[in-house]
Design goal:
One of its GO terms (biological process) is lipid storage. This protein is 89% helix and 0% strand. It is mainly alpha-helical. It has 2 domains: 7-81, no CATH class; 84-112.
Length: 113
Amino acid sequence: VNQVANPTLVSSACDMVSTAYASTKESHPYIRSVCDAAEKGVKSVTEATASCVQPVLTTLEPHVTAASEYASKGIDKLGEKLPLLQKPVEQIIADTKELVSSRVADAKDAVSS
């Protein structure tokens, strides 16, 4: 899970969502009360599930470790093949805007000539 969240694109997107969530909670008292209740519910379910699942995880630990190592190698290869994952969301948006602007300018030049 940590390795999936590690690429710059993913971590910057998570940061953006987290910031928007916190800002929304801060700005809207009614939404804050709903979010607080939802967070408490998720926390309770997580704690209850963790205690029930722990014995199963202990039994499956060697298999989970092997799957984790395999997934880790796959994520490393994905990062190599998709350098976009190493860029923050803001940079991708800026690059996309620049590319679109360039293409629109080229199209305008072609039409006007």
